[in-house]
């Protein structure tokens, strides 16, 4: 029987995790991972941020979903395995393991109401379908039009949009009737491109504080809508994942330049420009010639995606 699962991964993983692509785990969890093969899992970030037992800073929240495409042994480490992932998508709102006294995973709560710390220590936990669906509904509340996107004061929350979406800020124009809010219907939409675009845009805007990473411009209208757009670094058409680490917040014109390879970013986050770019365009860029970055290090552009853009898109 195929079941859902929780995969735990730290900000600085002790294992060879790249959640968008792969999950590295010991034989201890092979049965649980095999049970989820072909189905959706939810990623969880624990309190510890690294293998150091004293480390802290993890958000203790569910932050993304993906599907387990295949499992294979680690060719270089006996007793370890890789789960190869597909359809990765980050929540527009990270979901705490407990809200208002409700535990999303029933196994994490003891009969006396306290937290089951022993269950928390398991890096892979199978999950009831209903529990998975409730986590997904909470994580994509804004993308579903059910909740405002909260922002730090003094910026106003971004109001929920109409269920009939008029335009995608990531990939072009479309009309899309959002699913009913019954959780099973939501799960059925997780591979739909319009829904994924909507969630990706929301997560990237939040990470970059609704500010263009190249110009520093931030414009928010009276309804809480921001001018900035979300660009994929490695395009979806080239198998780029819907990950904040594969995203960058850009104003409309800069987004156009980036997608056409007239600007790019190096591994030190310096802005690169093609020879065809008019000199006057440089006046738009941040004075130091370096892109603005998300505060959280783990949300900054990943070198693998930046490398792809420089080698396959950028007109150096």
UniProtKB/TrEMBL annotation:
| All copies of domain HNH nuclease, residue ranges | 212-266
Recorded GO molecular functions are:
endonuclease activity
Name the keywords, alphabetized: Endonuclease, Hydrolase, Nuclease
The superkingdom listed in its UniProt entry is Bacteria
What is this protein's name?
HNH endonuclease
């Amino acid at each position: 029987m195929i079941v859902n699962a929780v995969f735990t991964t730290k900000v600085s993983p002790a294992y060879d995790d790249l959640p968008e692509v792969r999950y590295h785990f010991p034989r201890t969890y092979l049965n649980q991972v095999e049970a989820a093969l072909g189905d959706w899992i939810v990623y969880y970030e624990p309190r510890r941020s690294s293998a150091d037992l004293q480390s802290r800073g993890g958000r203790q929240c569910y932050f993304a979903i993906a599907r387990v495409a295949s499992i294979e042994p680690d060719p270089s480490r006996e007793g370890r395995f890789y789960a190869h992932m597909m359809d990765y998508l980050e929540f527009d709102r990270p979901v705490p393991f407990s809200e208002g006294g409700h535990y999303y995973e029933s196994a994490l709560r003891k009969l006396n109401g306290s937290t089951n710390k022993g269950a928390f220590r398991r890096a892979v936990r199978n999950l009831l379908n209903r529990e998975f669906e409730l986590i997904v509904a909470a994580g994509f509340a804004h993308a579903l039009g059910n909740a405002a996107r909260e922002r730090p004061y003094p910026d106003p929350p971004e109001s929920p949009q109409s269920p009939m979406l008029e335009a995608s800020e990531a990939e072009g124009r479309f009309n899309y009737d959002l699913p009913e809010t019954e959780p099973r219907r939501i799960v059925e939409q997780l591979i739909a491109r319009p829904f994924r675009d909507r969630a990706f845009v929301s997560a990237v805007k939040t990470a970059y504080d609704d500010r263009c990473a190249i110009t520093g411009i931030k414009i928010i209208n009276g309804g809480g809508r921001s001018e900035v757009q979300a660009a994929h670094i490695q395009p979806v058409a080239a198998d780029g994942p819907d990950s904040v680490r594969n995203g960058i917040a850009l104003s409309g014109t800069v987004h156009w330049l980036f997608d056409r390879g007239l600007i790019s970013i190096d591994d030190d986050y310096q802005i690169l420009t093609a020879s065809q770019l008019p000199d006057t365009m440089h006046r738009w860029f941040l004075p130091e010639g370096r892109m603005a970055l998300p505060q959280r290090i783990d949300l900054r552009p990943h070198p693998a995606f930046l490398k792809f853009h420089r080698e396959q898109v950028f007109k150096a």
